């Protein structure tokens, strides 16, 4: 064991982790907590690095990516770290350049059968070796498990075809109707690359993986059944033997829970639109991750405590990993994050039934 951040003891084996216990479905004396986008623009130390380096430079330099991964752990005793990267990372090695402004922009969106035929499917080790290196470095210094991640095929395809983030992805949804065969070819390639990429992250030391299907919820059930679920399933299936918990995230997707319930993921990350106990009932056997509304962290401490307690109570019906329903918003006061982490750590699950 070596002394690490905040004097907490760590071993490379991560002998005990309340996060991993909960992710594997064990009942834990308290809920573990980590936050999506816990590294990022709301932290002054992140903004300081960002002044000197572009987003891609930060992702592609393992020392910087590992440093940014660890920044939130120096402030808050989170129970897990998520490697600093982006869901766009596998696109450039496939032949699709991506800029950040600050959201992803793709100057030449993927649209035609030729565009898709030209896409490369690089072997795992060649997709993003800098991410594997960053995971190794972060693991050496992190007192808690490091989570690897990737975007789900349908969500990454949304950016690749639309050309940028969008409130409704109207061009992408139209394209799925016009070009279903091309869409299947694109999703097929994305699924192969995503599975290989996640396997590399696990080999480098990621102790859990999260598949971000952030925009799954904009699709109707039939479209998700055709273009979403089968490709998410393929990625998750390919990780079945890897021995790490798989987390699947979808936002605004309660209409898809009958399908998501059958995905081979141990954990489902759910948003704030309905209470955790309601989502849990629709996702039998799944560990719940979530689901505080990120705007609560923009309000005051009283709001954080009241809404945070409600999430804890709603989560008592089974294994629960505390998180937000979506990422930390820029402008979030770090003091509110600190208060939330303390609240979750001090709330006993065994005697906590209100
Ligand atoms: O200027 C900057 O600082 C860049 C902002 C930024 C950051 C900090 C982007 C651009 N990406 C990231 C890091 C990032 N992205 C992480 C690691 C940090 C952490 O979680 O602590 C992760 C997990 C992501 C994943 C990601 N990127 C998702 C899935 C999660 C979600 O929010 O649903 C999505 C949809 C993206 C796309 C993306 N990249 C960046 C932005 C601002 C966005 C979303 C907005 C858009 O669609 O335009």
UniProtKB/TrEMBL annotation:
Substrate binds at residues 37-41, 86, 159, 214, 326. Homodimer. The lineage of its organism: Bacteria, Bacillati, Actinomycetota, Actinomycetes, Streptosporangiales. The record marks 86 as: Transition state stabilizer. The keyword Lyase applies. It comes from the Bacteria. CDD domains: URO-D. The gene is hemE_1. Keywords: Cytoplasm, Decarboxylase, Lyase, Porphyrin biosynthesis. This is Uroporphyrinogen decarboxylase. Residues 32-41 form the Uroporphyrinogen decarboxylase (URO-D) domain. It holds the Pfam family URO-D. It comes from Actinomadura meridiana. Transmembrane segments: none annotated. Its EC number is 4.1.1.37. It catalyses: uroporphyrinogen III + 4 H(+) = coproporphyrinogen III + 4 CO2. It is found in: Cytoplasm. Pathway: Porphyrin-containing compound metabolism; protoporphyrin-IX biosynthesis; coproporphyrinogen-III from 5-aminolevulinate: step 4/4. Its main location: cytoplasm. Catalyzes the decarboxylation of four acetate groups of uroporphyrinogen-III to yield coproporphyrinogen-III. Belongs to the uroporphyrinogen decarboxylase family.
């Amino acid at each position: 064991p070596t002394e690490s951040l905040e004097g907490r003891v760590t071993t490379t084996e991560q002998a005990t982790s309340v996060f991993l216990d909960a992710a594997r479905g064990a009942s834990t004396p308290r809920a573990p907590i980590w936050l999506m986008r816990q590294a990022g623009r709301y932290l002054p130390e992140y903004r300081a690095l960002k002044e000197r380096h572009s987003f891609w430079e930060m992702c592609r330099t393992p020392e910087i990516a590992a440093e940014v991964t660890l920044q939130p752990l120096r402030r808050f005793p989170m129970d897990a770290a998520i490697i600093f990267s982006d869901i766009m990372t596998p696109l450039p090695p496939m032949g699709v350049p991506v800029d950040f402004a600050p959201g992803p922009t793709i100057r030449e969106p993927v649209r035609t059968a030729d565009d898709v035929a030209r896409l490369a499917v690089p072997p795992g080790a060649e997709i993003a070796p800098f991410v594997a290196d960053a995971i190794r470095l972060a693991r050496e210094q992190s007192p808690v498990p490091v989570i690897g991640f990737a975007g789900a095929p349908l969500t990454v395809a949304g950016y690749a075809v639309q050309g940028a983030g969008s409130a409704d992805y109207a061009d992408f949804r139209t394209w799925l109707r016009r070009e279903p065969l091309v869409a299947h070819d694109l999703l097929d390639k994305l699924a192969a690359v995503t599975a290989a990429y996640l396997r590399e992250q696990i080999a480098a030391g990621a102790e859990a993986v999260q598949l971000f299907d952030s925009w799954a919820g904009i699709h109707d059930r039939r479209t998700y059944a055709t273009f979403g679920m089968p490709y998410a399933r393929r990625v998750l299936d390919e990780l079945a033997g890897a021995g790490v918990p798989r987390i699947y995230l979808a936002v605004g997707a309660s209409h898809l829970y009958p399908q998501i319930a059958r995905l081979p993921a141990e954990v489902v990350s759910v948003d704030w639109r309905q209470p955790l106990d309601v989502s849990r009932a629709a996702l039998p056997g799944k560990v719940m991750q979530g689901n505080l509304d990120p705007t609560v962290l923009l309000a005051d401490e009283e709001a954080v405590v009241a809404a945070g307690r409600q999430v804890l109570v709603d989560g008592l019906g089974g294994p629960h990993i505390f998180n937000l329903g979506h990422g930390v918003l820029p402008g979030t006061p770090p003091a509110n994050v600190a208060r939330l982490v303390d609240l979750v750590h001090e709330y006993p699950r065994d005697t906590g039934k209100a």
